[in-house]
Amino acid sequence: MWDRLVRLTHWGVAGMVLFNSFNESGQIHRLAGYVAVALVLLRLVHGLLVGSGSTAALPLPGWRAIRTHLADLLHGKGHAGAGHNPVGQWMAYLLWALIIALGVTGWMARLDAFWGDDWLIELHEGLADGLLGCVAVHLAGVVVMSIVQRENLARAMVTGRKGG
User: Fold this and answer.
1) pTM of the full predicted structure?
2) Mean pLDDT of successive 10-residue segments in the chain (164 residues)?
3) Residue 164 is assigned to a structural domain of this protein
4) Range of the domain at 134
5) Rounded CA separation 92/58 (Å)
6) Among 89, 103, 84, which residue's Cα sits nearest to residue 13?
7) String of b and e for 94-114 (b: at least 16 CB within 10 Å)?
8) How many domains does the chain have?
9) Which of 128, 94, 93 minimizes the C-alpha distance to 109?
10) Burial class, 131, CB count within 10 angstroms (exposed 0-12 / middle 13-18 / buried 19+)
11) How far is the C-alpha of 142 from the C-alpha of 136, rounded, in Å?
12) Are 135 and 92 in contact (CB under 8 A)?
């Protein structure tokens, strides 16, 4: 299901986000943020380089796919594919965008041009809060989909294989 690079970047980003949610300033915070951004960029490049049949590929599900998936959920049907369902894929894009935006705003806050500008720090903090909210929704989605599909999706992101 998930190749090693997908799992490495997933858990690496998760670790950096978790670390930075408890360590909110200083050089180690910045370094962890930059590592998270680098891992997201690595994941995006990997997703663009693999074939469209790979679970690491980065499809852009449309509204029809999302509506169909949500209707299937209402009827107790899970996602039959090996990769993300359409809603999960969009959540991945949102999480990645927030992490990149956090890296950019964190970097900008260190520039002389923005020194002392509170709006940038407030934006960075708001993005961090938004990221943590999206992480909570992501985790809830993993739990719900694991129940609906009767398979441990968190374990699949560790082992690389779906089933059970």
Assistant:
1) 0.89
2) 88 97 92 97 92 77 87 79 84 97 94 86 96 97 88 86 67
3) no
4) 4-159
5) 10
6) 103
7) ebbebbbbbbebbeebeeeee
8) 1
9) 128
10) buried
11) 10
12) no
